[in-house]
Each structure stands twice: as structure tokens, then as C-alpha cells.
Amino acid sequence: MIDLIMGVSGSGKTTIGKALSQQLGYAFYDADDFHPPQNIAKMSQGIPLNDSDRLPWLLAIKSVINEHQQLEKDAIITCSALKQSYRDLLAENTTDMSVIYLKGSYETIFKRLQQRSEHFMKENMLLSQFQTLEEPENAVIIDINLTVSEIVKEIINQTCAKIDSNMK
Description:
The chain is of the alpha/beta class. It contains 7 helices and 5 strands, in the order E-H-E-H-H-E-H-E-H-H-E-H. It has one domain (2-167): Rossmann fold. 51% of the residues lie in helices and 14% in strands. The protein has a 5-stranded parallel beta sheet with strand order 2-3-1-4-5, with helices on both faces. Helix 1 packs across helix 7 (148-167) and helix 3 (51-71) runs parallel beside helix 4. The longest helix is centred in the middle third of the chain and has 21 residues, at 51-71.
């Protein structure tokens, strides 16, 4: 099983991904770790990435997904995956992947980003993320205003319900 946790920067992907992976005993991968240095430099300067910037990054993440699928190993992967085409690329030839969308308002996430100092993605780029975002239709949608433990519990409940309904 691959759980792809998506959402704009500041939605809590890394925090939730780590907590969920600890709860389930799944491997954890943060897509931020797969950005090439030029992408990080660009974002650090407040310049949004374009599709050609994102492609090598998405392919690196897809490689991790493919490896886990081949080995039949479970993983939690966090990735903004803002466009449907990005999610389609990540899900291509993948048989067992759930998309979990951490959804929150611009105002809530902007406040979170203002409190974050150690990250290359700054609050001045949040608007471009919301403009790029294509909300998923077939995803587990989670309200980011819940506590971390409530979010993890909700993800587990909803993904288990989805698996159960697919088996019937």
C-alpha cells in the first residue's frame, strides 16, 4: 500500500506523514528530499516552480513508488502533487495507492508558514500554490484544522473503509 499525502506547502504533509508512518509501521518519504538543488534555490528566492522544474522531481518520487510496489512494501509519501497530471504520473502503473488530501484555507496555511523558519518554501509563494492546485476528486479529504492524532485516525479510518469497499 502506498499512501500519497498531498496538499499545498504548510498543510502539514510532513508532520502527518511521519505520524502516520509511525502508527502503521510504513516507510516514510518526504518529497522535499527529492528536489534537485536548483529547485530549492529557485523556491528559496521566492520563484515558483514550473512543470519542467517539477518533472525530474516527480520522476524521482515515482521511482520510489515503483520500487515499493515491486517489493510489495508499504510506504507513506508526502508530495504537494498540486495538479491532477502530477498525481496521474505518480499513480501510473500503480495498483495500490491512496491519495490523501490535506485541505485547509489560505488564511490558516499562511499563518502556519509565517511561523516556519527552517523551510525553503516561504509564505509569499503560497498564493501560487493555491492558484496551481487542482483539488483531487478521488481522494481521502482531511480537514487540517483537526489535531495530528485526529487526522491520523481519520486517515486510517477512511483508507480502511476505501479498501473494504474495493474488496466487495
